């Protein structure tokens, strides 16, 4: 390669050797994992059938637009009535730049992507409570720079007194102090004072308008208002997956699912709810319900991508080890609401283009749309919450969720009152064919239960985001699909598997 005589392998080569010779594989679920399995296996000459309970493909990879339908376990279905062209992603909305397999499939399937603006210092923190800075919106840049400034000031002063620099040469200690001053924006006396980093009260302009800088918030006020609480203070770049550059599929993340659907369309059986999975000595028998009643389909092998809380209620003859894993691995609660507004007031009035506002109330987060900037209308994600907050909100009716989103949201954006048009909400843990957001492992469940599902139970393989360390990411579905396809194909062909990440052998 150094001599330019050989080409480097593409980053995501998937060169499995040998042929499937028409072996029948029944794939359960037409989410990203299931459809990717069907897509890759068909390339290898397998005969695939994909059974999907819903009327649509994509599973969690779902964008809500005009006409989208959604019911929950305790709520009848409603239909979205957003304006044409507007949408929000009820499931995935961001692709990290290092999720190369997700990006690979976007490229291979011809799905155009655009940058997703995940980080916006102009968005807000809003802390409900009794502190001096509570119940008002504060720009992220003020909170981040104030806290960074005060912390570096403390360290620089302490270093100066010789307490922190033991073990450093005098020159090195000076370098550290210089760094702290630059990092925190400290003045020549190593004090944190107002600076342009945290924004202006009056913006600079022409003539005699130098701009007016606001005083920083007091450190004690930040502390007493909960803005430094570890479960609230949030710098996206500190999280590997949330570091820019992030991407999204142009026109909605469901474009990825739709592109896969096109590739596997002849194999799909829609509105086919799997009710039983039976390992037979020489294959599998799958029982499902469709409009005509109970049906049975036999295959040589099966790949099951059903989320575990759903699978837990499907009849089967799995081994006790596998059954236990299915029952004991937990999923989180999570929900989102899309709010359509007549006017993009967050852009027009507040200079917010994409990014996230964080609250400590049940909203948790407001996401501003990262597409169609400067256009007329837009959909905000009015809350995106998790766990107890998502559970509380999920209990509410669709109407009461909207009320809550508006009531709490207008504290930050009073424009809600004038500009709101309509909403649509999804609680994933209340959604029949998911019953959870994504798998959440403890050290114990990862160690005691996860390994059982990485191996096939006789002729049934398991795939999906839950069978990876990439939980809550589409990349998990893709990686898992490839891993299982390689494993199944390795067993069929008894060939060496040319997929480097595969530690699963049938
Ligand atoms: C709120 C939320 C936000 C997310 N954000 C991101 C993000 O920003 N970026 C990112 O990359 N990922 C994100 N994800 C994760 C991503 O959506 C998932 O990891 C991925 O879509 C999972 O794909 P899957 O095929 O494993 O499962 P699923 O998509 O759940 O597919 C399972 C399929 O099985 C079907 N099914 C269920 N029961 C039956 C049955 N009995 N019979 C037949 N079929 C059945 C379902 O209908 C579904 O189609 C998010 C997920 C959620 C919920």
UniProtKB/TrEMBL annotation:
Gene3D superfamilies: 1.20.1440.240, 3.90.660.10, FAD/NAD(P)-binding domain (3.50.50.60). Keywords: Auxin biosynthesis. The keyword GTP-binding does not apply. Residues 32-486 form the Amine oxidase domain. It catalyses: L-tryptophan + O2 = indole-3-acetamide + CO2 + H2O. Pathway: Plant hormone metabolism; auxin biosynthesis. One of its GO terms (molecular function) is L-amino-acid oxidase activity. Its EC number is 1.13.12.3. One of its GO terms (biological process) is auxin biosynthetic process. Coiled coil: none annotated. The keyword Cytoplasm does not apply. Belongs to the tryptophan 2-monooxygenase family. This is Tryptophan 2-monooxygenase. The lineage of its organism: Bacteria, Pseudomonadati, Bacteroidota, Sphingobacteriia, Sphingobacteriales.
